[in-house]
Amino acid sequence: MTDYLDLAGQLMMVRLFGTELDADTDAFLRSHKIGGVCLFRQNMVDAFQLTRFTGALVDAMGPRALVALDQEGGAVVRSTWVPAPPSAMALGAANDPQLAREVGAAVARAVRALGFNWNFAPVLDLNNNPHNPVIAERSFGADPLLATGLALAWMEGSESEGVACCVKHFPGHGDTHVDSHRDLPRVDKPRAELERFEFAPFRIAAQAATPAPAVMTAHIVYPALDPVNPATMSRAILTGVLREEFGYEGVIITDGMDMHAIAHRYSAGQAAVNALVAGADMVMAIGARETQVETVHAIAQAIRDGVLPLLEVEAKLARLGKLAEAHPARAIAYVREQDDRALMARAWRAGLTALGQPQRPARGSRVRLVARADVVSDGISEAGVPAARIAEALGTLYDVELVTFADSESFDWSALPQDGRFTILASTSRRRYGPNARAGWRPDLHLALWNPYQALDFPAPALMSYGFAPPALEAAVAWLGGEIDAPGICPVPGFERG
Q1: Is 181 considered catalytic here?
Q2: What pLDDT is stored for residue 262 in this prediction?
Q3: What pTM was estimated for this model as a whole?
């Protein structure tokens, strides 16, 4: 007799809520045959704890366990103590496929040593929208061929080290003004424009000699394809476009179903069933335990009632099984950590980009640093670098006076003393500046240490690092000290001045 709950559990990826596998969670994973888990920063303490945790998860879930995380690079990383990879756009600015491959391999070595076999990266979204609130530097760029070539090289490196990738967010999140974590975006473009731009990387990745092993869906409505359903729940998009038109045979997984674009419009169970009927193979049910239980029962009921045909379920399980068998979740020793740290430092430096012919203050100069006091995590990215840490780094070169602000729109730039100090603005958040700052702030140099589009908010010369990880800040200080140049070329439009 078919056990529908067992089948349903294998189609789910869940979130966990501690740093150890407690007895209740262990029983839940075993009794429902849960197929995948996704771990986040709050599940991680250090390498010893995390390796023990992932090992216990595999023991509970079995040899076909899929143990996943988001280790993209830049601001979107979960294990923060391993060598810090540059963001996608930093690699886009370097435009070196071999370097991208080496970085992808190094990321995989680090996460495999921690027991992961699936990394939700690289991002294939093309970013030509300066006001995108969630993608920005997570994209390799705006040119479909350049961005896809770098992403596939990164993916090839990851695969060489035994970690499956997952390209995202199909059919494309790059040209949105809304963050799907907050609300439901729409990309209201004609089909021909979607084909030329958004679709292009995913079509290439689906049809490559070595196709992407997995694709993550976007919680976005594309009216030219389906006027009602977000892509995650659209059979026209997931089955019609991705499976049938692109010929894609790998795994399709949803983005987190707890995101507001979905959770504020559908019940958890119905949303999961809709996504699986549309063509997804696995639902990322990362809400509370109650939501996970609701989801597994709803999927089981849909299989029992024939809403989700058994033949389709078997095909989904076969794809998931193939992915897991090709990438066993088994921690291995990390023997190249120091080499990988040197590689990441080199990669951050290769992407460093100058805008508007910035000038370096002479060593020993009196410098005023203006920066947000602290930057907390926005739930997607890790917390930005505190202002005091930037001041400490610049203090190796200059006499630094630090001025911090909590809210850029209420900060009075004109109140800064006119005392001859060279004024450096360091931007350490993703959000663009508002009208008050854009109208009145006039730094001598803008260090854009996260979202490069912030460099467009002021006419000041800028140095863009596409991220704030320690090696990114070290690269900026090395440039200020005259030790290195800034060879990168920003891979999105709008940065042509000066």
Answers
A1: yes
A2: 80
A3: 0.96
